[in-house]
Please model this.
Amino acid sequence: MSGDDPALDIASVGEDVPLLEGIRTTRAIRRLRPDPVPAELVRKVVEAGTFAPSGGNRQPWIFVAVSEPERRAFIAKRYLKAFRTYVAPALEAARDPDFPDARRRNVHAALHLAEHLHEAPVHLFVAGWTRRGVQQTEGLFPAIQNVLLACRAVGLGASLTTVHRAFSEEIDAFLGLSPRTPSCALLPIGWPAGRYGRPPRRPVDECLFWERYEGDESRR
Model:
């Protein structure tokens, strides 16, 4: 499936993906092809986000999809600058031969995204209203998860990042967002260059307790 597929049926695509299979295989996809994504498909995954729960059904979310190349370049330039500062310690640590391979792959995948963010066909920003000066993230992050799951269902790759917040005032103003409606996350979206699959996770019995927590807090 790709953005220029004439047989792409927006109304039906993704509707037959089993829910639990989608949940288990929605991993961060940071390597994206530059092929365009139909606007109606972006609308479909954002619509899924609007079905998230929110306290008092306030629905505090605002979505801003950026697809014009020059606007993506503006965002990507600032994102990369912030990311290089953020990731520098991890890159240095990753040179250690004892550094875990899984973490090393994650670091390099995140770096790839930062260096190629301008190529991601859609930069989807999630923003929301503040209440008494505090953003209502308890509604925004369920909406973000719904969008990520919907991307998985329709064949798109996506990931969640907040690195852009290092330039929050400048980027939010560029997006037309005010201090009352700040962005909290960026989801780069496109057709995946890799494959979906189960991300590494601890067994559920290591984090599920009945009646009372009896875990070892020193391990974290």
Remarks:
- Helices lie at 19-24, 39-49, 69-94, 101-116, 137-154, 168-174.
- DSSP finds six helices and seven strands in the chain.
- The longest strand covers residues 183-192.
- The first helix runs from residue 19 to 24.
